[in-house]
Amino acid sequence: MLVLEVLYNAVLLTGLLATVINHFTHGRPKVEWSRAWSLVPGRVHVRDLKVGQQSENGISWQLAMDDVRVNLSVISLFNRTLSADSLDVRGLSVQVHSGPEKTEGDKPKGPPPENPWKLFLHGIHVQQVHEVAVKAVRLTGITTASGSLEVVPGHRVSVRDAKVHLGPGELAYADAKIANIDQGSGEFSLETQRKDAEHGLDLITGLTGGRLQFTATHPTFQELSSLTSRLAGISLKGGAGKLEVDLHVKEGRLAKGTVIKGSAEPLLFSLGALRLKAPWQFYSDVYTHEDGKDRFGLKLTLGPARVDGVEGLAMEAPELLLLLGADTPRLDELPADAHLEFQAKALQTTWGGAKMKGHVHVTADARKLSLQSGKVALHGSQVQLQEVSVRTGSDEERNWEGTLTFPEATLDLSPLSAQGRFSGKFSNAAPFVALLTYKGALPGVLKPLLTANNLGLSGQVALGEKGLKVDKLLANGQGILLHGLAESTGAAPHAIFLVKMGPLSVGVETGAGDTHVQVFNASSWFREKTGISKE
Residue 2 above 50 pLDDT? Predict the structure, then answer.
């Protein structure tokens, strides 16, 4: 018996056991330690234990443990199984690194091993988790963890009754601290099996159920500069606040019961010439839609808010709302089938001598919404204007409304600019005429536009730091037809129109406070001025 004990410890102390395990597993996973011994057969003490693997697709993982005590089944080793009915760990670090991005031709290289070494660890208890780093995300502050783990490499992974407790710690992304964790807890179960040689193990879908709760504070956006600097042309300052997170997971997706909410001090958002300042708060959850499917929702509230922009543009609103609705996303994916809405009630705007107040509602068609490097495609978006009042000088129009649809629209973030095609229907042209003339000065020949109800409008628009430009403008309503172009790139907007009222055609040019009306040969005059031929 004494001889067996000596041989047993010799195998442990010399690292022979690790060598044998690594030989039969071909280093998948690889096991190593600095010191191991046993006073009672089967009860093993290990220092600086490391278990890790580099997979064929470049993904690597490693568990590093300071001190381990395990009831190891020696007999199970002869069955190519590392089995333990209890495992006590003090000091744990978890690291998972991703490989290169997959291509369409990437497939698992051959079938999984037919008789791999197996890992069955039950009764796991961990204290003092130093960090959990998964790809770019790093979490500290886990005080205790427990559960059971079964791994058959390439075939099956099972995690049961996993529980963690969070104390003070940090949540970081790409080395930037994004939250200070106060406290929290979590629990989850994972069960996944390989279906065939063509598909690997889907660990995300294998998360059959789980929950993570914690409270935290997040820093100002200046402290997140390493992340926000990636948003071309966007500057964010201030905005520090608190978070309350309660995530529910089912089959790898956010599930009903999920609630994320927070509030923060005012932030200053700058994009090109636009400046927005407002305190903010948000609320996000998973809810059941009227069609019976679970949906993910996000509500971001800014207010009271003030926006300053290009020369002469100022907007104020008691509240700005950004709403997002989407299919419940996988934990490793952004939401799909997203529906975006922007709402501004009682928005007050001053620009070009006109003052407007009303409600604005913007929607984006998720099927056509896309985000590329520095650009946002907003094809199919729509702007609704309701209960608008317009004041130009001493004239005022009330209960004005209209709808603009953008079949094609693109927003460039750096430098800030937007362009697209539009069409719409409006009460009349009062706000547009006011904006395109200087401080409400309106030539008499355009007066019919103000009273032309159910006005149709279409054209192309380009908006940038230098101002606004409208081409191929076409407006018609109640016996009046207008072609033209307009731009506002300084203190004095400039516009050239060809206006038809019945058999009469009149050319109009406005700018710098002056208005020229061309009565004779208006079509020829318009063609010479713009290069556009209209009969």
Answer: no
Nearest CA to 399 out of 412, 411, 386, 410 is that of 386
212, part of any domain? yes
35, 127, 169, 358, 385 from 343: Cα distances, Å: 64, 48, 37, 11, 10
Domains in the chain: how many in total?
A: 1
Domain assignment present for 160: yes
Token digits of residue 194: 């390989």
pLDDT of residue 231: 59
Buried b (16+ CB within 10 A) or exposed e, 242-267: ebbbbbbbbebbbbeebebebebebb
pLDDT of residue 182: 95
Q: What pLDDT does residue 23 have?
A: 65
pLDDT band of residue 4 (cuts 50, 70, 90) is very low
Q: Which helix (H) or strand (E) holds 450?
A: helix 447-451
Cα→Cα distances 450→90, 148, 433, 447, 474, Å:
78, 75, 8, 6, 15
Q: What is the rounded distance in angstroms from the CA atom of residue 63 to the CA atom of residue 94? A: 5
Helix (H, G, I), strand (E, B) or coil at 71: strand
In a domain, 162, yes or no: yes
Total residues found in the chain within this entry = 535
Residue at 13 is within a domain: no
Q: What is the pLDDT of residue 304?
A: 93
Tokens representing 251?
């089959």
Global confidence as pTM? 0.78
Torsion-angle region of residue 19: left (phi > 0), alpha (psi -120 to 50) or beta? alpha
Residue span of the structural domain in which 142 resides? 136-320
- Contacts of 427 by beta carbon, 8 Å cutoff, 6+ apart: 397, 399, 400, 401, 402, 453, 454, 455
Percentage of the chain lying above the pLDDT 70 cut = 79
Q: What tens digit of pLDDT does each residue of 199-252 get?
A: 677 878 888 999 999 999 999 988 887 776 655 567 888 999 999 999 999 999
Asked whether the predicted pLDDT for residue 134 surpasses 60, the reply is yes
Dump strand ranges (E) for 167-273: 169-173, 176-193, 207-218, 234-238, 241-250, 253-254, 259-271
Residues facing residue 133 across a β-bridge: 95, 138
3-state SS record for 216-233 = EEECCHHHHHHHHCCCCC
